[in-house]
Amino acid sequence: MPCSSEVSVSLADELVSMLRCPACSGAQWDLRTRDGNDLPRLEGTLCCEACGLGFDVRGGALDMVPEIVEGRRADLRRRLESPPLLRLYEETFRHIPTPIASDIRGADRIAWIKDHAPAGPVERVVDLGCGRGRDLVVMRNERSPRLAVGIDSSRALLSGAATNARLAQHTGFAFVRADLQRPPLGTDLFDWANCNGVLHRLGDPASALAGLASLLRPGGVFTCLTTLRLGVGPMEVGQRVLGRVARVHFFARHDLEGMFGRAGLEITDMKPFGAVVLIAARRAPS
Fold first, then answer.
1. Which residues pair with 267 in a beta bridge?
2. CA-CA-CA-CA torsion for 152, 197, 168, 79, nearest 10 degrees?
3. Torsion of CA 214, 217, 220, 222, to 10 degrees
4. What's the chain's Rg over C-alpha atoms?
5. In terms of residue numbers, what domain contains 46?
6. Domain check: are 162 and 267 in the same one?
7. Quick one: what percent of the chain has pLDDT higher than 70?
8. Most confident of the ranges 103-107, 113-117, 152-156, 241-245
9. How many domains would you assign to the chain?
10. pLDDT above 60 (res 165)
11. Are 161 and 132 within 8 A, CB to CB?
């Protein structure tokens, strides 16, 4: 989407300063808005001054997936983002290992997030794969950050998250549609990052984790739910089949420890629940 030379309206300077263009990696932006200064109500266009691409802001959600990428999968995405399928995804497929071979409850995971929240002051938090923003609300309630950012690849889920934020009058919430394998953000930005049920569904989890870890400030906290490879037996065979059919990775414990270490994350706690595991980590000082 090319940008025309309209008058720029500065809005959400803090959020915009964190962004990097997914097409050219530029960091100079021109934000043109049609509706006020409230992030969850934002409408307009964000234009990259380096390459001229524009990214739509609709209903409080900034879409940073370039059209050249979106065009290849737009038809499929429209079919998958119908309300019934999205509900099924949020309640079942997103947590696909959980109902199959784990007794973890939603309350267990929320308690884990709260128990492993950063101890000190928190200015910014990010939920990576935020869906409709449930975990982001938990993070906000725990530490009252100035800015809470939710990132997801689903336009429909982000729209729902922004709607929920507007209804709850959460003005410090921002929602960005992006590829979590290569998030369009700078480094050393957040005090706390949460990643629920996403890491094992990315094409290159090790590379993605390194990129996600770089979003944290040194000493920042990373909380995560992902898969755990089971031992020999029927469940191990089932995981192999599921991995091939649904393209889900299952990680051995030592693989997770190595992957987190290479990403610069020091694991502070790890709790398995059958085929899933909760992990808390901290980004090592530079």
1. 281
2. 50
3. -20
4. 19
5. 13-59
6. yes
7. 75
8. 113-117
9. 2
10. yes
11. yes
